[in-house]
Structure formats: C-alpha cells, structure tokens
Fold Uracil-DNA glycosylase.
Amino acid sequence: MEHTIHDSWKSVLQGEFSKPYFKTLNEFVKKEYQNHQCFPPIDQVFSAFNYCPFNAVKVVLIGQDPYHDYGQANGLCFSVNEGIKHPPSLVNIFKELSSDLNMPYPQDGDLTRWAKQGVLLLNATLTVKAHEAGSHQKKGWEIFTDAVIKSISDHKEEVVFLLWGGYAKKKIKLIDEKKHKVLLSGHPSPLSANRGYWFGNKHFSESNHLLRAYGKSTISW
C-alpha cells in the first residue's frame, strides 16, 4: 500500500513501512479488499496524505473510522463524495462553520478543498468493511496514524491540532504543546452536540487566528 502515498510522507514514515506490524496490516487490508466490499476505494486509502503533502500541513483534524456505507468514504475524515447526503456529524460541523464564520451552509460535503489548503483530515483507522463500523480497528492502523501524528509534532512547527471528542483527545499525548496549538471540543455527533459540547467552539475562526499569528496563510473553510 505504501507505494500509493505521496512522496513527501515516504521519507517521514519510511521506518513505519518496514516494521512487522505494517507488513501484517498490509496483508490484512489486501485480503479484506479482495474478499469483501471495503471503504474507501483502495486507491483512496491515503487520500488525506496525497491531497495534503507533509510540508503543507498547517492543521490536523483527527477522526476515528471511515464511513461504512456505499459512496460515502473518500479517504478524508468527516468528508463524503460530492452529491452524497451529509452524515449527521458533518451536518453539525457545517452548522458550526456557518455560525462561526457567518457564511452559508456548504452544499458540498467533499472536504478535498480543505485538504488542498493544508488540513490533514486523518482518520485513526483508514479502512473499514462495508456496513461494519470499526471492523478494521486494532489491526495496526492506529499504530501507523499515531506515528503520523507524532512525526508531525516532532518534525514541524506551529501546527494547529483539532481534537474533537474523547477518542481524538487521547491523541494529545503525542503532541508537543510547546511547539503546537491544540484546540479541544466535544464531538460533532448529534449525541455530543445536543448536550452542548460542540456548538460554539469557534474552532474554524480560532484556527485561522492562530495561523495568522504564526505567519501562515489561513484556511478558506
């Protein structure tokens, strides 16, 4: 699989690709895609990395699992393909975005436009079997994506990390908060959002405020 990832990440993550766990993971994923319907399409597994090269990373948004229904997952966390109905979490993300930046609710749920501006839309697990949420968890993906987060923390400066929900917040241990800024919030899922843990976090405007302070270009959310 690693041959499909952008060259800028290969040098950073080369050590991971040669470890036993990744070779086992590679075989597992290969067999799953051969024998079952899995998402995202195999050529989109590393989309988050391919649309956002290592040198371009300014913001990191961490999700957990790809969507597991047909036509949804495209390799970017929380993102769906154009024309696909927005899942509940994405609806709440766009509601907060609209309120925070006083802009219209986005009609297109494909977040490739964010990724191309330097937002790494990273799921902790990069693949899933159709209609079986979490089916590819604890197979090695989390070891790999933890290494991605730590590599960004170690080798880059002044990156904004968005940790939404309890699962993502656990990743804070991988991030050097002296070099980077971490913004915490509840998860945008209806369960969390309806309890008051999501709306009003203003992470989109705050991210741009921090990027300006770092002397970096802002994100056109």
